[in-house]
Specification:
The protein has helices at residues 21-34, 39-49, 53-67, 80-103. With 104 residues, it is mainly alpha-helical.
Length: 104
């Protein structure tokens, strides 16, 4: 049950000796930096070298969540002149590519 508005749920406050979680996270982060621990490198190592397939899959999944963006559909609106210009540009680019291919 929620306490009435204006009344603290823990009037005595945090017990002595109990660390603030924000400070604890800061300490852990600094420890990892000091030890030169790279979580991404550890996940790559697991994804490449683990003998357990489920661990490799979990490591790859976590890497993809962290380092690959979620793609969303994007709607483009353009008038006829812009569309014609884009088509002409694409034709020019394809022409350049065809000339380079023919050089070989």
């Amino acid at each position: 049950m929620a306490a009435p508005r204006g009344i603290a749920q823990n009037p005595k406050g945090r017990p002595k000796g109990c660390r603030d979680k924000r400070l604890l996270y800061t300490d852990i982060k600094q420890l990892l930096i000091d030890k030169k621990f790279d979580p991404a490198a550890a996940l790559v190592e697991l994804a490449q070298n683990s003998k357990d397939e489920s661990i490799r899959i979990k490591a790859m999944t976590e890497l993809s969540r962290k380092y690959l963006p979620d793609l969303k559909a994007v709607e483009h609106k353009m008038d006829d002149n812009q569309l014609k210009s884009l088509i002409e540009l694409k034709k020019k680019m394809l022409g350049v590519q065809e000339r380079h291919i023919n050089d070989f």
